[in-house]
Fold this sequence. Notes:
- By secondary structure, the chain is α/β, with parallel strands linked by helices.
- The chain is built from 6 helices and 4 strands; from the N terminus they run H-E-H-E-H-E-H-H-E-H.
- Helix 2 (38-66) packs parallel to helix 3.
Amino acid sequence: AQVQAAVAATLARFGRLDVLIGNAGVIEPIAELAKADPEEWGRAIDINLKGVFHGMRAALPVMRAQGAGTIITVSSGAAVNPVEGWSAYCASKAGALMLTRMAHHEEGPRGLRILGLSPGTVATGMQVKIKASGINPVSRLDPSAHIPADWAARALLWMCGADADPWLGQDVSLRDAAVRHAVGLPA
């Protein structure tokens, strides 16, 4: 209901909805699968996967009626690579990646632009939580290894335009030098 209300408020104010970015995400619980708290695990699924679903479900009818729109899901390399202690994060991001591919499969022929962004490790508060866990190699990365948050923002802006059309239906990775070049980021 909250997502539907946000879309309705956007339409009331601007008359249309051009872009939806599914960016909400949590890393917790960081725990081995056998020790993960089921309620925390379910909360991660609710936010990281079901949040993407609810956003798409609210935006797609509006974008269909307009005949245009872009939906971007912020993904992760954890969607395709298991990381110790991140079962909820990996599973939810894998589900969100497939949901993005499904949305492209169903809505791409209608002219909607749907794709994902896998930014890599970004210098945000999430990295502080990961580092404090000490549970896997990502937690031991030096903070200088994380990309600046503005790189992800610049990539998202680029993905809203036609220059990103060759990547429609895919998960765009900032680890890919060709993508960074296309976005205008350092190699």
